[in-house]
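Figure 3 (text version): structure tokens given as input.
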């Protein structure tokens, strides 16, 4: 059936609600729900969003708030309701018991235990189900979840800051930060909502970063260093703080047992990939992170690490900061790769004079809407 203007408004509200769960619900998807009366062109009765992992789903919360008014109502939900017992009971059973008359679903759920089953269960109970309203927006909202489910790895966000002449770092002895304080605030906000932050050993040694979010956000990211030969210094801030803020050192086949043992004795977790090629080893690491149900990975560089991820087709989203500065000298620009996919720009911001370009990497194997 065609969707009405009220249908669109209600689903837009559900999408706005869903975004409030970002950083709180992973590895679950962000979901919003609106309960409305179809009388007089439509009136919103109750609304909710999935607020935290393991907590009630958006549909159940919205129906609880609607109470008896949910009988005969229309439920708008951004993702297909679940039909299996997980950490919470099946949402389909709650919808059926509430007496909902119609359900409008923005997008299907690719999770194997749902994947069309939720819609089928509702229709089998005599509930009218309409699918596809604002589907593109709903799919975009859940792309990290979809990558984890269908690709078996986290959604990879590549972030870098550079000068106008392509330098990724200030020269020795100069200012430590290229970007403005507002750009740094955006980065720390990003760090506070993702599951893991990754840098290469070169960045870890030259910058001696903490890789923490300041102030802390809803998530505490696992810090990861790609360190092929396990040469991360024991007095680095990453190692010194490893017992209070998790640190995983991803080493290669050339890392010796004594260096691995030293890192582990300092409180680091060591993951060893035996693949000889860096790209294959990075892909294996991503599979391991996917096995751990990590949903979002932030790759902060340096240039060689970013190049490895791009060359392997492993970057999904970019946050590229350009500062209005000329640093001169021999820089470390991102590698120019043949057939590098374009970026579909979603947003351009100007934090305190910097330029932030945020967008998605266009790839043929992009996860499907399902």
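Below: residues designed for each position.
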């Amino acid at each position: 059936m065609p969707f009405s203007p009220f249908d669109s408004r209600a689903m837009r509200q559900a999408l706005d609600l869903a975004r409030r769960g970002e950083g709180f619900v992973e590895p679950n998807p962000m979901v919003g729900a609106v309960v409305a009366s179809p009388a007089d062109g439509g009136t919103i009765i109750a609304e909710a969003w999935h607020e935290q992992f393991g907590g009630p789903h958006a549909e159940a919360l919205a129906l609880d708030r609607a109470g008896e008014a949910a009988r005969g109502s229309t439920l708008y939900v951004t993702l297909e309701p679940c039909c299996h017992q997980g950490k919470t009971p099946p949402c389909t059973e709650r919808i059926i018991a509430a007496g909902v008359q119609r359900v409008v679903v923005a997008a299907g759920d690719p999770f194997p235990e749902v994947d069309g089953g939720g819609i089928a269960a509702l229709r089998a109970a005599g509930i009218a189900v309409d699918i596809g309203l604002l589907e593109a927006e709903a799919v975009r909202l859940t792309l990290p979840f979809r990558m984890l489910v269908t690709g078996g790895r986290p959604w990879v966000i590549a972030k870098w800051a550079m000068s106008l002449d392509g330098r990724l770092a200030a020269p020795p002895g100069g200012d430590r930060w290229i970007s403005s304080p507002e750009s740094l605030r955006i980065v720390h906000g990003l760090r506070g909502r993702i599951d893991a932050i990754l840098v290469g050993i070169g960045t870890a040694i030259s910058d001696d970063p903490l890789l923490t979010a300041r102030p802390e956000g809803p998530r505490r990211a696992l810090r990861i260093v790609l360190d092929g030969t396990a040469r991360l210094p024991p007095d680095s801030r990453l190692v010194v703080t490893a017992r209070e803020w998790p640190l995983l050192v991803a080493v290669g086949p050339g890392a010796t047992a004594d260096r691995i043992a030293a890192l582990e004795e300092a409180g680091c977790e060591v993951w060893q990939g035996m693949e000889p090629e860096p790209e294959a080893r990075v892909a294996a690491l991503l599979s391991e992170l996917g096995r751990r149900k990590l949903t979002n990975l932030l790759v902060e560089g340096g240039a060689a690490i970013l190049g490895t991820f791009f060359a392997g087709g492993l970057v999904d989203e970019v946050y590229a900061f350009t500062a209005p500065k000329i640093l001169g000298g021999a820089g470390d620009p991102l590698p120019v790769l043949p057939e590098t996919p374009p970026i579909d720009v979603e947003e351009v911001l100007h934090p305190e004079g910097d330029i932030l370009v945020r967008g998605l990497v266009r790839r043929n194997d992009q996860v499907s809407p399902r």
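The CA atoms of residues 310 and 340 lie 8 Å apart.
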